Amino acid sequence: MYHAYTVQPIVDNLPLKIQAIDTADDRFYIGTADGSLLVYGVEEEPSFEVTLLDAKKGFSKKPIDLLGIAPSAGNLIVISDGQVTIHSLEDLSIYTPIPKAKGATLFAVWSYMAEAIPHESEVSDTPPPLVAKTADLLCLSVKKKLLLYNLESDGMAEIKEINLPDRPQSVLWLAPERIVVALQKGFFSVDVNTGLTKELIAKGQSLMQSLAPVVGRMEKPMLARVGYDKVLVGRDESSVVVNMKGEVAHETGISWSTMPTCVLHAPPYLVGLTTNHVQVRSLRTKEIVQSINLPSVHTMVPGPTILVASNTSIWRLLPLDFEDQIEQLISANQYLDAQALIEDLEFPTEEDKIANIVRVRGLYAHHIFTAERKYEEAVNILEELKASPIDVINLYPDLMGQKDYVGPPSERKALLVLMDYLTSQRAVLGKYRQEFEHAGFTPPEILPEEHEGLQSFPDAMSDPSAVWPPIAELTAVLKQHEDNPDYASYIETLYLSRLVDTTLLKVYLSVNDALVGIFLRVPNQCELNESEKLLLLYKKYNELIDLYRGKGLHRKALDFISQKPDLLKSAVQQLVTYLQRLAVGDLDLVIEYSSWALEQNPALGIKIFTEQYDEIDFETRQRITDHLQHISSDLSTLYLEHLIHELRDPSPDFHDRLIHNYLADIKNRANEGSLLDPIPHSSQSESELVEFRRKLHTFLESSTHYRADIILKQLPDGLWEERCVLLSRLKWHEEALNIHIYKLQNSNMAEQYCQRHFSRDDPLSQSVYLILLKLYLALLADGMLDLPFIVGFMSRYGSYLDLLESLDAAPKGLTVSDLGQFFEKSLHQLHRSWHMDEVVKNLLLAQRLQVHEKLLYYQSRRVVITEENMCSKCLKRIGNSVFACLPDGTVLHAYCAKGRETTDGDRTAVAANPRSL
Predict the structure, then answer these.
(1) Cα dihedral sign for 645, 651, 654, 657?
(2) Angle at 24 between CA 20 and CA 29, to 5 degrees
(3) Can you tell me the distance from the alpha carbon of 220 to that of 211, in angstroms, rounded to the nearest whole number?
(4) Which of 291-305, 692-706, 730-744, 886-900 bottoms out in mean pLDDT, i.e. has the lowest?
(5) Handedness of CA 516, 520, 525, 531 (dihedral sign)
(6) Can you tell me whether residue 192 is helix, strand or coil?
(7) Taking 70 as the threshold, does the pLDDT of residue 908 lie above it?
(8) Sign of torsion, CA 109 110 112 117?
């Protein structure tokens, strides 16, 4: 409960017994048991003062039972001992008696003046149109009749007399044309114009049944007007609000502690007078708002303020300002009651009402979160209110980053609720950012940073007692763009995104640190400085690297890995993996930081380039090669081998560089053996020199992209086998064979060389065997070979040797029988060549015949041109023009056919004769 009214005594310990009271403007009238009438004036300014203005002793011979005021007519209505008298309010003189009203027990007044201006907090239906009247209506209850009068300042006139089935127990004007009366049998609505009486029905049953009456005589029934077309009816301790159709206007009735003798509607409250108490109830909730203890009170009347009287005293109920009532409820943590009060009130605009409800609901959420630990319900309320994420995050002071906070950390249950909320907010804010970016908005160069805690927007709902950190930086940025509200909203969205993601990172670190890495590896808006401190505090070094990568701060990440390798499990591997993920545009960073990895672990560091950066251009590969060469020629060799053997790079520069590296390695190991010796064929106990020579020799034979003439100039003395390969590429076969014969002194290798390089189609290579034969003959002349060796060579390779040149070069003394196998193979080769020439000749002849036959076919075709033939291109008549005919029979002008692209099967014949071809 709370205080809706304050009680102020205005008359205390009156020596006369108060029987009836009423009030008008700044005066109130008291009727006593001895028939006296007292008139008091009330002054509010400059200070509250009550003054006795007039006292009419013996105003009535009998006790004054009822008083009433007709303000429009300026009359005072008095009932004493069943007599009704009308007095002027000015001098209290009797205006006129009403003899016909003798025996009256009740009356009710309808004042147009009082009803013209509805209460500003009225919550009932829309009032009827106002009628410009200066008179009042008086209804007198006399036995089983209702007497209706029109009261005016210059007199009164009877309007109508209405008969009732029973004596009324309560009478109430609801409208100028309708009266509600309470009879012993029930509640009835009386039509003033027709005099018809209709029982009020509540949802298909008797209203008396809905009030659950007791059998036997009942207490005086209760009537109270509610709004413009509703009435509160009741008997005993029960009452309900009904409309003129007899329908219950509210879902629940009111159960009073004791039957009220009077009820007044003071929106949004019902004020009921019971024995020794005044009860204030909410009309909407029916709950008791305030209970005021006033001993022996028996009368209550409405007016500028509500007056309550006992036998000797009178109090007035002063309503507290509604804002004060709301703040009172908030201070007492009665947020639901405050919300109910706001919903019952009327505000200048609907937006003002909603704003007040939102504020109270937000404070209620804060209360149940901190005091009742209803975390999920509190966050759900704020989410329903579309509160800023700042308001939700501020429920967790330990996450706000304030240096002076010394309280306990948030409970795990609360953090889990916040985690779900922030996750949903990330999706919403991400959608907003995407919409802004699609509209062409770009982030400002500087966003406000968070310093000593999170910052609340000006319209954030918060506890008035809380001290929020200023938002000067954000406000300054927004002010710069106040002429562009859309861009200001975009900045605000970016700020909230950063706030939400940073807080979510804190939550993950507190409740489930396994999610931190996953979170930081996806696009996020975490504030860098604060996130960096958190991750270092929690020793989440790998996650810190992920944060840097996500922010594009590659240099910071690489510095951290290379400068603090002891903090990481495998720093070199992490650096390699990080550099492999960088784009080609970051090649400068890759080259710069790969040096550390290559120095620490060359085998692992080279994978930066061999397992990544495959689809790059020549210049980039050249830069990488130069970089690796600067560190170590071995690394450069590994990379070049990767380019050539795995990526199949045909660039001569790379092939030449790889050969150059091989040669450098060979020269560096020249002390391990002689470069003049042939390459050993055994693989056992090989030195590095042999290994590199074999690798060089294999590459020279397999590669076709290096420049042999340049490499040949770089060869050191020796390396005869490698030199032979280069000479073969240049087709300098005589020099190569000279090396095999005179330097290597290996005829088998010389003959294998001839086998590899002999070609009948190549003029430079078709005489390699003849060159070798001449070299052998020179050795024969020097006595280094014998004649059978020469005969054997010629016999083995007779099919590759030119017959005439070989015979000219052959030594003297050879017989035909010695050269029998030579002649056989040589002649066989000649025959095979002649036979192949014949085959080719016959094939060419057959092709010629086919072409000639095709020509005859096309020349034998006949085309007839008539007046109807049209050119297929220009669509004009052929007529007598020179025309062309396509193989499919289509005809067109020769000019149109000129320049036409044709295939072998789509040749165009041109006719000089315009009529036939």
Answers:
(1) positive
(2) 30
(3) 14
(4) 886-900
(5) positive
(6) coil
(7) no
(8) positive
Phi, psi of 246 (to 5 degrees): 80, 10
**Average pLDDT of the residues of the chain:** 83
Exposure of 252 in the CB half-sphere (CA atoms within 13 A): 9
CA atoms within 13 A on the CB side of 869: 20
pLDDT digits (tens, 9 = 90+) for 288-303: 888 999 988 999 999 8
Q: What's the mean pLDDT in 867-891?
A: 86
Q: What is the mean pLDDT of residues 822-845?
A: 79
Pairing of strands 136-142, 299-301: unpaired
**Which of 48-57, 209-218, 405-414, 570-579 has the lowest average pLDDT?**
209-218
Classify residue 101 by its DSSP letter: G
Of residues 127 and 567, which shows the higher confidence score? 567
Q: Name 6's bridge partners.
A: 318
What are the DSSP calls for 363-420, one per residue? Answer: HHHHHHHHTS--HHHHHHHHHHTT--HHHHHTT-GGGTT-TT--SPPPPHHHHHHHHH
Distance CA 126, CA 124 (A): 7
Burial class (CB in 10 A: 0-12, 13-18, 19+), 622: middle
Predicted local distance difference test score (pLDDT) of residue 683? 56
Q: What is the pLDDT of residue 116?
A: 43
Give the angle subtended at the CA of 138 by the CAs of 136 and 142, to the nearest 5°.
Answer: 175
pLDDT confidence tier of residue 500, bands split at 50, 70 and 90: very high
* 272: helix, strand or coil: strand
Measure the N-to-C terminal CA separation of the chain; round to a whole number of Å.
Answer: 119
Half-sphere exposure in the Cβ direction for 69 (13 Å, CA): 23
For the cut 60, the answer to whether the pLDDT of residue 130 exceeds it is: no
- Residue 662's contacts (CB-CB under 8 Å, 6 or more residues apart) are 637, 692, 695, 696, 699
31, two tokens: 């009727």
Q: Are 62 and 49 spatial neighbours (Cβ–Cβ below 8 Å)?
A: no
pLDDT confidence band for 458 (50 / 70 / 90): very low
Give the β-pairing of 94-97 and 5-11.
unpaired
CA distance 173 to 167: 17
pLDDT in tens, 561-604: 999 999 888 899 999 999 999 888 888 999 999 999 999 999 99
3-state secondary structure of 40: strand
Percentages of the chain per state (helix, strand, coil), in multiples of 5? 45, 20, 40
In this structure, of 97-101, 457-461, 702-706, the range with the lowest mean pLDDT score is: 457-461
Q: What is the mean pLDDT of residues 745-756?
A: 90
**Position 16: which residue type?**
L
- Radius of gyration for the chain, computed over Cα atoms and rounded to the nearest angstrom: 58
pLDDT band at 217 (very low <50, low <70, confident <90, very high): very low
Q: Which two tokens mark 57?
A: 């002793």
Which residue in this structure is represented by tokens 């109830």?
A: 281
CA pair distance 177, 568, nearest whole angstrom: 92
Sign of the torsion angle spanned by Cα atoms 780, 783, 788, 789: negative
Which of these, 764, 828, 767, 750, lies nearest to 795 by C-alpha position?
828
Q: Virtual CA dihedral for 250, 254, 259, 262, nearest 10 degrees?
A: -50
Residue 638 near residue 625 (C-beta atoms within 8 A): no
Residue 85, classed as helix, strand or coil, is strand
- Positive or negative: CA dihedral 707, 712, 715, 720: positive
Which string of DSSP letters, residue by residue, matches 854-895?
HHHHHHT---B--TT-B-TTT--B-TTS-EEE-TTS-EEEHH
Decide: residue 415, CB within 10 A, 0-12 exposed, 13-18 middle, 19+ buried: buried
Please give the angle made by the CA atoms of 851, 853 and 858, to the nearest 5 degrees. 95
CA dist 195 and 567 (Å) reads 99
For residue 244, pLDDT beyond 90: no
Alpha carbons 440 and 117: distance in angstroms, whole number: 55
